[in-house]
Amino acid sequence: MKRTDKVIAADRSYVAEREKNVPISQYFGEDTFSAKTMQEKLPAAVFNRLQDTTIRGKKLDLETANAVAHAMKEWAIEKGATHYCHWFQPMTGATAEKHDAFIEFTDEGAPIERFSGKQLVQGEPDASSFPSGGIRSTFEARGYTAWDISSPAFILHRGIGTVLCIPSVFISYSGEALDKKTPLLRSIEAINTSALNLLRVLGNRKARKVYATLGPEQEYFLIDQDYFYKRQDLLLSGRALLGAAPPKGQELEDHYFGSIKERIFSFMHDVEEELYKLGIPAKTRHNEVAPSQYELAPLFEEANLAVDHNHILMETIRTVSTKHKLAVLFHEKPFAGISGSGKHLNWSLADDQGNNLLNPGTTPQDNIQFLVFLVATIRAVFYHADILRATVASSGNDHRLGANEAPPAIISVFLGEQLSGILEDIEKGVTTNGTNGVIIDMGISKLPLLSKDNTDRNRTSPFAFTGNKFEFRMVGSSQSISFPTTVLNTIVAESLDVLAKKISAKGENTRQATLDVLKEEIKAVKKVLFMGDNYSKEWEAEADRRGLPNKKISYQSLPDLASDKAVTLFEKHKVLSSVELKSRYHVRLERYVKEIDIEAGTLCNIVESQLLPAAIRYQKELASSITITAQALGSAASLEPQKAVLSSLAGLIGSTYVLVAELKKTVEHVESLGSGEERAAGFGSRVRETMNAIRSKVDEIELMVDDEIWPLPHHWEMLFIK
Ligand code: ADP
Ligand code: MG
User: Fold this and answer.
1) Of the candidates 131, 192, 204, which has an alpha carbon nearest to the alpha carbon of residue 370?
2) What distance in angstroms lies between residue 295's CA and the mean position of ligand 1's atoms?
3) Which atom of ligand 1 approaches the CA of 350 most closely?
């Protein structure tokens, strides 16, 4: 059966697990050991002691840990769990889990389910195969996981198995962070400290805690699983390394927000049901711009929880897609020629009184506070645009950033007309026009309520203020949002400190001091503000004149992660030590190299063992057809056009062979280069260029060769048949 016939004939019927009339609110969070579950399952004294630990930061004693572990185990077994695991986020970008059964044996040899406080609180996985970026050799091979009490334990069902997952940090014997969660938690601490300090300076005595909030909008592609398994490139590298662009892509703009196909609708329903069980507030779903591209956005949550939830969400999409015989592609650019996928990271700060600190207020005092946090964020982005750019540097994002669909590699901040005007007026400190003049005279008391609905939108901006939050749009779809968030929190914490210090230094009148400081800061950092079209050539030239960094390819940007400036910043806020920061840089650089190395190897495999043989078979068929026809028709035959086709096919096949040999040689040479930086540069430029050259030849061949013998699913099939 032809591949497409098989896909068309596949059974797509799908039976929902849950009765349709059960409202979501009834089962939301049922697979999490949430505060509510704990309150039900734990003796009151134990529950209170645990609350002390999570909310008031006290240390967890063993007795409490034992009681919690017991209750957690009973609850998990009731849910079908046979094992538990410390679920953590190593520097691979994915999550890790090592399962241990609850089963143990008594002295008499009788089996019994056991789970102790010690097992709950700490684990000791063999860390030797996780990337450490050099930390391990400097310190010790052993790694420890420790329960992160601020994120609830949850149940994971996969196939017929069930496991209790305990969100954990992952650290080395000497306490170095080997994961993404530890620095995130430290950055959450840092921003809390700095924000509270600034609030006090501004006269705010109410807030007792400030935390970052995150809403990550996840984009992804779905294709039929049957096509996916036929493509080594999708399977091994996550993207189509070749394939001719179909005559129709996204030109007609008919997919964006289009009606969701039945098969996809069932899949989404199933995903969301799983997410709701896990207490993940999936809110919005829709078709995205490219054919077969979709988006799922949850409601925003506290940053640590939102990061864990995004990991679980991606994992859930993956598992559920398999169940529906679909394959998900989280890669930033699975198909050339159509939009790639990002993960817009909505970020804000909230206090424990329920206030969003990036929401313009209704009183003069609130408005000033809002402006200080706004300017602090702009300031942070201006001074650390290089680090922010580096957090999204990856081999996948290289195809996306700077293409005509995603922000360029230049970081600028969009504020909208109204807010820009207000900042301009503050900077000038003069009455420039009627309305805004009034605002200044009255101590900004008339700052209008900016709601999401009346802030203008600029889809091209990499860092846009959208009414009551910032949206960092450069993050890649496959990426963990943990590190970008860690960096955002840290750079803003630094700016908050600077502003607090400057305001305090200016003396008694806080309001005047604040306005004076804002005025100076706006003047110093306004170069980063840009309201125009970020995709335009003019902006690139203008940004260059302004001296804004523009590192287009990841290998150029990654070293900014480990610059002296970055080390000072992260050490000052106790988010990452110099060793920890440099290890992250090395892991990312290595990963960049390896990913392109895998792509190059995969491309060679496909071209040599699948595509060129198919092309040669067709070449032979054409050649013998020409010979036979010439014999049959004699001199009457007019075979020049066919001979031209044959000749151009033979030419393409020949030059592809030459290019493949060249690619192999280039890879070999680049692999032998001394430093990681050189290897990354080699892979990011010469290897990628040769790969592109091969692709353009092979894509031409694809359009000439008999479809019956072409071994790979075409792009039009993958993107349009479901
Ligand atoms: P858009 O127009 O960008 O799609 P949405 O209102 O759909 O805007 O919001 C996108 C995401 O932003 C959602 O995940 C939403 O929960 C999140 N979001 C809204 N408010 C905040 C906030 N204060 N902090 C962080 N994220 C937020
Ligand atoms: Mg958005």
Assistant:
1) 204
2) 13
3) 23
Instruction: Point out the ligand 1 atom lying closest to the alpha carbon of residue 215.
Output: 14
- Does residue 418 belong to any structural domain of this protein? yes
Q: Which ligand is nearest to the CA of 346?
A: 1
SS3 of residue 647 by DSSP: helix
User: Are 195 and 108 part of one and the same domain?
Assistant: no
The residue-averaged pLDDT of 20-24 equals: 86
Q: Do 278 and 326 lie in a common domain?
A: yes
**Predicted pLDDT at 441:** 46
CA of 342 to the centre of ligand 1 (A): 15
Q: Which amino acid makes up residue 221?
A: F
Which atom of ligand 1 lies at the shortest distance from residue 348's CA?
24
The verdict on 680 and 607 lying in the same domain is: yes
Among 191, 283, 468, 469, residue to substitute to test ligand 1 (most atoms within 8 Å of Cβ): 469
- 13 within domain boundaries: no
Q: Looking at the domain assignment, is residue 397 inside a domain?
A: yes
Q: How many Å lie between the centroid of ligand 2 and the Cα of residue 346?
A: 8
The predicted structure's pLDDT at residue 10: 78
Q: Could you tell me the distance, in angstroms and rounded to a whole number, from the CA of residue 334 to the centre of ligand 2?
A: 21
Same domain, 252 and 344: yes
Using DSSP bridges, classify how beta strands 413-414 and 463-465 pair: parallel, antiparallel or unpaired.
Answer: parallel
Domain identity same for 343 and 404: yes
Output helix, strand, coil percentages for the chain, rounded to the nearest 5: 55, 15, 35
Q: Ligand 1: residues whose CB is within 6 Å?
A: 213-215, 217, 284, 297-300, 346-348, 356, 466, 468-469, 471
Using the mean position of ligand 2's atoms as its centre, give its distance from the Cα of residue 344 in Å: 6
Q: Which residue lies with its CA nearest to atom 11 of ligand 1?
A: 215
Please say which residue of 179, 208, 242 terminates a domain.
179
**Residues 436 and 547 grouped into a single domain:** yes
Helix axes 181-201, 303-323, angle to 10 degrees: 140
What confidence tens digit (pLDDT) does each residue in 320-358 have? Answer: 999 999 999 999 999 999 999 999 999 999 999 999 999
CA of 337 relative to ligand 2 center, distance in Å: 22
SS (H, E, C) 98-158: EEEECEEECCCCCEEECCCHHHHHEECCCCCCCCCCCHHHHCCCCEEEEECCCCCCEEEEE
Q: How confident is the model at residue 141 (pLDDT cuts 50, 70, 90)?
A: low
Residue nearest to atom 1 of ligand 1 (CA): 466
Domain encompassing residue 76: 31-179
Residue 21 lies in a domain: no
Query: Ligand 1: which of 300, 305, 454, 465 to mutate, most ligand atoms within 8 Å of CB?
Result: 300
Domain boundary among 157, 179, 201: 179
Residues 399 and 506 in one domain: yes
Q: What is the mean pLDDT of residues 586-594?
A: 96
For the chain, how many structural domains are there in total?
3
What is the number of the ligand 1 atom nearest to the C-alpha of 216?
14
Q: How far is the CA of 257 from the centre of ligand 1 (A)?
A: 18
- Band the pLDDT of 449: cuts 50, 70, 90: low
pTM: 0.95
Task: Give the ligand 1 atom nearest the CA of 284.
Answer: 7
CATH number where 361 lies: 3.30.590.10
Q: Phi, psi (5° rounding) for residue 96?
A: -130, 150
- Name the E strands within 384-440: 413-414
100-109, 248-257, 503-512, range with the lowest pLDDT: 248-257
Q: Are residues 167 and 234 in the same domain?
A: no
CATH of the domain at 96: 3.10.20.70
β-strands 470-472, 343-351 pairing = antiparallel
